Amino acid sequence: MSEIAIEAMTEDQARAELARLAQVLAQANHAYHTLDAPEITDAEYDRLKARNAAIEVRFPTLKRPDSPTEQVGGALAEGFSKVRHEVRMLSLENAFHDEDVAEFADRVRKYLNHQGDLDFTAEPKIDGLSLSLRYEGGRLVQAATRGDGAVGENVTENARTIADLPQNISGAPDVLEVRGEVYMAHEDFAALNERQAARGERTFANPRNAAAGSLRQLDPEVTRSRPLRFFAYAWGALSEPLAATQFGAIERLAALGFVTNPLTRLCSSPGEMLEVYREIEAQRATLGYDIDGVVYKVNDLALQRRLGFRSATPRWAIAHKFPAELAWTRLEAIDIQVGRTGALSPVARLTPVTVGGVVVANATLHNEDYIAGRDSRGQPIREGRDIRVGDWVQVFRAGDVIPKIKEIDLSRRPAESEPFRFPETCPECGSTALREPGDAVHRCTGGLICPAQAVERLKHFVSRAAFDIEGLGAKQIEAFYKDGWIREPADIFTLEARFGSGPRQLRNREGWGPKSAANLFAAIEEKRNIPLNRLIFALGIRHVGESASALLAGHYGTWAAFETAMTHASPGAGPEWEELIAINGVGAVMATSVITTFHQEAERRAIDALVAHLEVQEAPRRGSVESPVAGKTVVFTGTLERMTRAEAKARAEELGAKVAGSVSAKTDILVAGPGAGSKAKKAAELGVEVIDEDAWLALIGAL
Length: 703
Ligand code: IVH
Known about the structure:
By secondary structure, the protein is α+β, with helices and mostly antiparallel strands. It folds into 6 domains: 6-71, Helix hairpin bin (Helix Hairpins), CATH 1.10.287; 94-321, 2-Layer Sandwich (D-amino Acid Aminotransferase, Chain A, domain 1); 325-412, CATH 2.40.50.140; 447-527, 5' to 3' exonuclease, C-terminal subdomain (DNA polymerase, domain 1, Orthogonal Bundle); 531-617, Orthogonal Bundle (DNA polymerase, domain 1); 633-699, Rossmann fold. 35% of the residues lie in helices and 19% in strands. The strands form 7 sheets. The protein has a 5-stranded mixed sheet with strand order 2-11-10-3-9. Helix 23 links the parallel strand 21 (633-637) and strand 22 (658-660). The longest helix has 24 residues, at 11-34. It is globular, with a radius of gyration of 29 Å. 2-(butylsulfanyl)adenosine is lined by residues 90-92, 123, 125-126, 130, 146, 181, 233-234, 295, 314, 317, 319.
């Protein structure tokens, strides 16, 4: 069939051609992604897609609802749209020992000052990936992955292909976000890998990877061809409560048509919780799907609400993990890696071995002492046995962490083996590697002249919780660094100016093309506007992780305020120092590290150069939203009768108040219980408002 030139088309011809292209492209997508049997070449596919887009430009009103332009299938470089979770998706604190369970129950009791019965649910921890499903008026309207907890990926169309998920439900709250785990059963996983292998496609290392890879497919038809399943175990936004208890809420979800885990139990003591743990552990091998522990949750939802959250985990739940799986293999070599803070990390290169379904070829060796068989206090570990190249070692994995070495087998040690000598210079830049007294780690003193440190800092800068630039990952950073295209973060934002046109262009670079280059520039452009917490985290300051960055951002609010404070601060004294360490969660070590970074000339120059390219978003102050106590300084004194100090403090901070230990002119409210002494007196002298516990609860709307 000859094609009509777009400029010469009538409206009718255009409509017919758009219909034809929609059909041809959809079929090509299906053949490519689902059947793995492409019917047209990639070039022809691109040409048809471009033709479709050009017709749409000339006849915008004819654009079809199923326009191929809007479809992600076939465009694997593009990502999913983002979804901001109305209620954050959190993770769980882990416990590894039986004692931790009683300790958890104790902590809950203490926090609540709860004396009577305290029930917990116990259920398997499914090893998959979490998904949040939003139903409005009983219809599934959105499905999102967890992402970083605040923002996930919109995988609605893919989720619709999961048979366990009802598309419509009746009798549910008008707004209902059901949360749970997407996973792949063992038999489905084995069959999928067989199919993949038969077609010469990549196989998956374990069911979890297979589930994640299948859910995060840009073409929903691929997801449909993969047998995913779903267990509901939690919820996000709700227009009305599901039940009064965790157990009741799960029953309600089951009644609404969701699959819930049949091993969910109600327990009334740590002893019973451990019994359920053993029961579930005993069934682990025969369940037909992977689980990696047992999750305990406070049953009473009113208590769950009171317990609330720490920065990333609820106080009312804990994951009791199963012991890690172990395997023996040979240690072939010990390599030294240099991290972004200059730490020299010894890494064990192993003969690859499968541990818990994953092939392990590397394990961390921590530091010099660990290899020598001593802990940080000089006490023997592994009964003082050192680790040598050539040794047989027992490795284990716990969760997603880097594999570790548990044991060595001296009886198989080669006769000629020698103790490992830790290098005294940086293997990357040759600078002296110093081990300071009291520190277990050797650190390269090369600073920014050390290429390894510079590259690792750049990798950190673009990592997921930092700038998260699509198309700029570890691999690309290494290549750009090597060629001198990117040496420090600021260079990322001048990449297009330097390599977008002219004699040396990104599009002509090996592995790049016009489209991927344009995509990268667009992705960089998008990140010029960055949330303050991400920027702080991206700087890679020692001791300042993701949650500390959020604390700092939440406290200072703007980059200007943060930068000014750090510029004027000096470690150990002064008002800026006092303010910094008064932040709940910021200690002296972290504070010193931040201040020192801002005072190092080279560091400071790099930070200023970077920030000149950015628009830094203001951080929402915690709880600033319409709370009557936001921004106020509150002091609690005397006996509180309805809540513990810890709860009162956490609650006030959630609402944006600052809780201080002593009364001063800065205090706005003193909450005084029975037995209040000198603080009440001082407040009266200073004219500070004094209220009792009930008045406080009424003020914050908790009565
Ligand atoms: S409750 C607010 N229950 O484990 C806490 N999580 O390590 C909501 N997971 O992100 C989570 N099985 O993906 C809960 N029965 C279960 C679970 C479970 C698996 C996952 C979930 C979560 C992760 C935390």
